[in-house]
Amino acid sequence: MPGAHRIAAVRAAFVTALAFGVFAPILYYMALHWQADSNYSHGFLVAPLAVYFAWERLPRVKQVPVNPSWWGLVPLALGSLALIVGRLGVELMSMRAAFVLTVIGIVLMTLGKSIARVLAFPLLFLFLMVPLPQSLVNIIAFPLQLTAASIAVSALQAMGIPALLEGNIIHLATTRLFVAEACSGLRSLMALGTLGVVFAYFFRKNIIERLILVFSTIPIAILVNAFRVALTGYLTHHYGTEAAEGAVHQLEGFITFALALALLLVEAWLLSMLWPESWRSRTSWGASS
Predict the structure, then answer these.
(1) Rounded Cα–Cα distance for residues 38 and 136 (Å)
(2) Which of 69, 84, 187, 226 has its CA 20 to 30 A from that of 176?
(3) How far is CA 100 from CA 77, 166, 216, in A?
(4) Has residue 285 got a pLDDT over 50?
């Protein structure tokens, strides 16, 4: 690397290491959160992927001049404020997001706006490792539970299985199913959303295609989890509750996520087949965007 870039990189690495030292307890307990809550197990992959995305942009970084910017004080101040608010209110998301804001501020302060613009995607990608607060999860999960249950009941009735929906409880002929938060689709939505961002990045077409891929993970996650609920109802109706519990229920989770991934791959293939070449070149981000 050129001398100025090398010195700036060492300076940025040193300050980032100091930030790691300050945020070490917060990052440690966030990793424990990933381990304890399967909704966020993908968090272990976010930082390594962000490092890879940044490394892939290294040739472009070398071509951009180092020009440290005082604008870095803005995310640093926001990070400090989020850390203080999180400490006072015992709000974990604020403290964890403060680390990402601090890293963004360090990049701006030590490397400059041009390099920060090149590294914008890997820096913003780090936010995906921050778990949502439980209060927000409850707000999101319950409508997803109702949606999954409603679609599942419609599918069961279409197959001739008597089913009645009452809230998030599905009444069958001999028993009833409770559509819990774990079956709401939130887990698939978080993991599939992150996967959709990664896949859209590697798909390397254009901004519109990438946005379509990312936002389509929402209906895909809802549909596959409705399928999972309907499958559980089908097995329960024909073979009893034992056929839809334990290992079988866990297997259904793997099947539905594999189905969601397959749908995402099919969608990407359809976009590559149907997207006009003239539109693709007009809206392309470039191979290294």
Answers:
(1) 17
(2) 187
(3) 12, 42, 26
(4) no
Which pair of tokens denotes residue 142?
């319950």
Please check the confidence at residue 283 and state whether its pLDDT lies above 60: no
Lowest pLDDT segment from 7-11, 67-71, 135-139: 135-139
Q: Give me the pLDDT at residue 171, please.
A: 84
8-state DSSP, 276: -
The CA distance from 173 to 176, in Å, is 8
Determine if the pTM surpasses 0.85.
no
d(CA 256, CA 244): 14
Closest listed residue to residue 126, CA positions, set 207, 194, 57: 194
∠ CA 128-131-136, rounded to 5°: 115
Whole-number Å distance between alpha carbons of 248 and 21: 44
Cβ atoms 73, 109 nearer than 8 A? yes
Beta-sheet pairing, 176-178 with 164-166: unpaired
Instruction: Please state, in angstroms and rounded to a whole number, the distance separating the CA atoms of residues 258 and 270.
Output: 18
∠ at Cα 133 (80, 215), nearest 5°? Answer: 100
Residue 106: both structure tokens together: 């360090």
Supply the DSSP string of 36-57, one letter for each residue: H-GGGTTHHHHHHHHHHHHHHT
